[in-house]
Amino acid sequence: MKKKLIVFFSLVFVISGYSQEAPQTFSLNQAIDFALENNRNAKNAKRDIEAAYKQKWETIAIGLPQLNANIEYQNFIKQPVSLLPGEIAGGEPGTFVPITFGTKQNLNASATVTQKIFDGTYIVGLQSTKVFLEISKNAAIKTDLEVRKAIINAYGNTLVTEEGEKILIENRNTLRKNLDELTKIYENGLEEEESVEQLKITLSDIESALNNYTRLKKVSYQMLNMTLGLDIDHPIILTDNLETLTAQNVDLHLINDPYSVENTIDYQIAENNKESKELLVKLEQSKALPALSAFLNGGYTGNSNTFTFTNRDQIWFGSSLFGVNLSIPIFSSGMRGASTQRAKINLEKSIDDLMETEQRIKLDVATARSAYQFALEDYSNKKENLDLAKRIEAKNETKFFEGIASSFDLRQAQIQLYTAQQDFLKAMLDVITRKAELETLLNTVNQ
């Protein structure tokens, strides 16, 4: 019995150990690499490329020999009757003799090989497969860029909530300590009650903000997990530090270096759209060309009044046929002309769309560069402001407990410090996310 209990508890221990997933650790770069393989949108984009390759072969195969077989079995429940003149059977003129032709059952097996010799639509179709594949590849690149940006944003937001929670815990602990000291001073009659109440208000605000940050941290982790392609409650650990990550994302070359609009993914997608519209014009024009194909057919037919087709002595009659089919479009009542004109109109629209995309990209890049430059400047400014706010708050705290400064002065200095702390966190996040936005627009990751 004792051995059974030991085995039972050992199994329980092992099962409980496996039921708790070990947390995965991610640096930002590791998170990006992981998401590009496991994010659901990224995986579907890769599947689209695979589907495009299959469609390419599907189109190629249309122009290759096609072999089809056909087996047809017929059993006349009641055979059709034909009428022949009665004179044939020695009857009176004007009379008819009913007669049944053929056998009650027959089986026909045949095979047909067809081959396109010339078809303008097929030639255009082959050209379009290359463009369609390029469209799928560019769409996948666009998706990967968006996934990368989403990971950077989610990772940065999660670090902000982590760091914000730590700062608020530190502020809360400091305030609690100060409140205890001030309460003792007040109880000894050396401080006004208002000073204690002011500190309680500040502490209450900090505790409320801390509770909110704790909730935000959970949501941030869930959002990051979803972007990674994990279950939202999967345990993960982030190894990068917010301030270090911010310093790594300072890159003035992105602001000053020249760039090529043609290298941006949005321009390439718009160019793909124009190329596809050009092929649609060619497709409509090719429909006016003749189409030539050849075919070869061969088969055997068996006849019997009973089902004897599996017998060795069944007689089979063979047949074969070779032919060429030439289809020449002559007149379509203006339908082909209208289709061609419509395709040309869509091509003109795609050319304008390409020009519009080029101008929009230039504007978006200029806007993103300005936003990134401001984020860098604001980061430097907020860092200095935080250092100043820390010194001011420390001085006011010392003055307050020495009886030189009022509780109002201390509260103002504390609020100024807490605001500076939050502003600095936001400034660091802005540097990271603004750089990611600019990199996505310029497609610098894939160059």
Tags for this model:
two-stranded parallel sheet, Outer membrane efflux proteins (OEP), alpha+beta, four-stranded antiparallel beta sheet, single chain
Question: How is this structure best described in words?
Answer:
By secondary structure, this protein is an alpha+beta fold. It has one domain (40-63, 119-289, 329-446): Outer membrane efflux proteins (OEP). The chain is 65% helix and 14% strand. The chain is built from 10 helices and 8 strands. The strands form 3 sheets. Strands 2-5-7-8 form a 4-stranded antiparallel β-sheet. A two-stranded parallel ribbon has the order 1-6. A two-stranded antiparallel ribbon has the order 3-4. Helix 5 (193-228) runs parallel beside helix 10. The longest helix is centred in the middle third of the chain and has 68 residues, at 120-187. It is elongated and about 145 Å long. It starts with a helix and ends in a 5-residue tail after the last helix. 21% of the residues are buried. Mean pLDDT is 90; it is low at 5-9 and 11-19. It is found in: Cell outer membrane. This is TolC family protein. It comes from Allotamlana fucoidanivorans. One of its GO terms (molecular function) is porin activity. One of its GO terms (cellular component) is efflux pump complex.
